[in-house]
């Protein structure tokens, strides 16, 4: 158990819809990271928050947004969903410094 | 452009023998490398890491070797056990960033 909690585990929705994925970091970790893993691909970095502030951005689509709340949990919002957004979405956390990052078990998003 | 490459999608090894997983990278500015193991329906689990100032790091049955001139690293597992059967991801970090760049993974199967 990494200590990182992601909900829900599975999400099935339709194109054009909006969903919110939630992540609770390990106790004491201030940084939260979001990654996307599409079929047979490596994990792709989306965005990082540190203590409530955005710290780094990767190849995150404009339809996607994230935030980190005062209690340090984070949410990833995906809107105007397309079939290609079907993927595993992982959250990771770390003490500042990022080495290593500890991952949750992911949310599997299926767009029908 | 894939900056971290794992060219072997799969590897099969007999229990008790050595497993060698390989990873190549293209950017000489990476300064830290990590290996993660992933079981189905779980998130990646951190295994071992190495800084670019070292050429070897060992932790129990796991050893990572770094050859900077060849831009190559490898993970050795000795002896291999059936519980090691999983997908192994190589990942890299630039100095002063927390954005992990992942390879596409190698599926290791250890058979009795």
Compact description:
With 112 residues, chain A is mainly beta.
Report on this model:
- The complex is a heterodimer of chains A (about 110) and B (about 110).
- With about 110 residues, chain A is mostly beta strands.
- Chain A is about 0% helix and about 50% strand.
- In chain A, strands 2, 4, 5, 6, 9, 10 and 11 form a seven-stranded mixed sheet that branches. Chain A has a four-stranded antiparallel sheet with strand order 1-3-8-7, with no helix packed on it.
- In chain B, strands 2, 4, 5, 9, 10 and 11 form a six-stranded mixed sheet that branches.
- By secondary structure, chain B is mainly beta.
- Helix content of chain B is about 0%, strand content about 55%.
- The chains are: A mainly beta (about 110), B mainly beta (about 110).
- The interface of A and B includes residues 43 and 97 of A.
Secondary-structure blueprint:
The complex is a heterodimer of chains A (112) and B (112).
Chain A: E1 5-7, E2 10-13, E3 19-24, E4 31-37, E5 44-50, E6 53-57, E7 64-68, E8 74-78, E9 87-94, E10 102-103, E11 107-111
Parallel strand pairs in A: 2-11
Antiparallel strand pairs in A: 1-3, 3-8, 4-5, 4-9, 5-6, 7-8, 9-10, 9-11
Chain B: E1 4-5, E2 10-14, E3 19-25, E4 30-38, E5 45-51, E6 56-59, E7 62-67, E8 72-77, E9 86-94, E10 101-102, E11 106-111
Parallel strand pairs in B: 2-11
Antiparallel strand pairs in B: 1-3, 3-8, 4-5, 4-9, 6-7, 7-8, 9-10, 9-11
């Amino acid at each position: 158990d990494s200590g990182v909690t992601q909900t829900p585990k599975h999400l099935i929705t339709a194109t054009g819809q909006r969903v919110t994925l939630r992540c609770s970091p390990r106790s004491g970790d201030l940084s939260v990271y979001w990654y996307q893993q599409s079929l047979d691909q490596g994990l792709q970095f989306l965005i990082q928050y540190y203590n409530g502030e955005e710290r780094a951005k990767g190849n995150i689509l404009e339809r996607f947004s994230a935030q980190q709340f005062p209690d340090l949990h984070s949410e990833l919002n995906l809107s105007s969903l397309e079939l290609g957004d079907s993927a595993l979405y992982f959250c990771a956390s770390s003490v500042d410094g990022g080495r290593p990052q500890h991952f949750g078990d992911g949310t599997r998003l299926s767009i029908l | 452009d894939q900056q971290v490459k794992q060219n072997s999608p799969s590897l099969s090894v007999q229990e008790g023998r050595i497993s060698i997983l390989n990873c190549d990278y293209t950017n000489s500015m990476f300064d830290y490398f990590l290996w993660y193991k992933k079981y189905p329906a779980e998130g990646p689990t951190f295994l071992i890491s190495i800084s670019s100032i070292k050429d070897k790091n060992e932790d129990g049955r796991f050893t990572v070797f770094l050859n900077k001139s060849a831009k190559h690293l490898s993970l050795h597992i000795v002896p291999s056990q059936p519980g090691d059967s999983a997908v192994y991801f190589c990942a890299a970090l630039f100095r002063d960033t927390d954005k992990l760049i992942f390879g596409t993974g190698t599926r290791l199967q250890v058979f009795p």
